[in-house]
Design brief:
254 residues; alpha/beta; 7 strands; globular
């Protein structure tokens, strides 16, 4: 019975950012648990590769910063499979770093558009469908940056902090109609997004992050995908409005 609660047989899940990294790992994890998938990403080639990695899926090229794209993605789940049980808002970008005084408005707008507005559009579209069903689980992607201020990551951290509060508000609104809303706030994870730089510099970053971890470890996408699976499944049926933190112990908020 315990293991069966993690199964998603017969359920339909939408995953954004599915072309690589945590989004791709999430698609595989949900598929392995029995879900039928509708996958979205701007990277059409990467999206097609993910579709081929899972049992049953439809790929829909999607820019999450465009509300119409996100609405169409969710609509595709309903028209193709007849329902929506899980919405995993994974898509995100890091954006160029730098001190607050150097951040240009265009960069700020882009980071907020993808990391915050994109999640908002996903929550909005999913809540509309799930409220009518009176069931569903929404999982948003936050970050350890919501707990640990890091110089040079103002735009990214602001967006992810917004995701955390959006999650709580949506949980309050979704609860009375049977919809759970939670978030995952990963620590440092080796993904294409975090590996942009010279190999020597990336090795130093990973070394630093290992030192900050109570486990002396850094994460991989599967670690985060497993957390998403838990929140998507009935195993977490008594959880809503919560921030799950798979971060190796780098931060331990009370």
């Amino acid at each position: 019975m315990t293991l069966e609660q993690f199964r998603l047989d017969g359920k339909v899940a939408v995953v954004t950012g599915a072309a690589s990294g945590i989004g791709q790992a999430t698609a595989v994890a949900l598929s392995d648990a029995g879900a039928r998938l509708v996958l979205g990403d701007r990277d059409a080639d990467g999206l097609e590769k993910t579709v081929l990695m899972v049992a049953e899926a439809v790929g829909v090229p999607t820019d999450v910063s465009n509300k119409a794209d996100v609405t169409a993605l969710v609509d595709r789940a309903v028209t193709h499979y007849g329902r929506l049980d899980v919405m995993a808002n994974i898509a995100g970008i890091m954006g160029a770093g730098g001190p607050i005084t150097s951040i240009e408005e265009g960069l700020l707008d882009r980071v907020l558009a993808v990391n915050l507005k994109g999640v908002f559009f996903g929550v909005q579209a999913a809540l509309q469908v799930m409220s009518e069903q009176r069931s569903g689980s929404i999982v948003n992607m936050a970050s350890a940056a919501i707990d640990h201020p890091a110089p040079g990551l103002a735009a990214y951290s602001m967006a992810k902090a917004g995701v955390a509060m959006l999650t709580r508000v949506a949980a309050q609104e979704g609860g009375p109609v049977g919809v759970r809303v939670n978030a995952v706030a990963p620590g440092f994870v080796v993904t294409p997004m975090t590996q942009r730089g010279e190999p020597e510099r990336m090795a130093e970053v990973e070394k630093t992050m290992r030192r900050r971890s109570a486990l002396g470890a850094i994460g991989d996408p599967d670690d985060i995908a497993n957390a998403v699976l838990y929140l998507a499944s009935d195993a977490s049926r008594f959880m809503t409005g919560q921030i799950l933190r798979p971060n190796g112990g780098t931060v331990m908020p009370s």
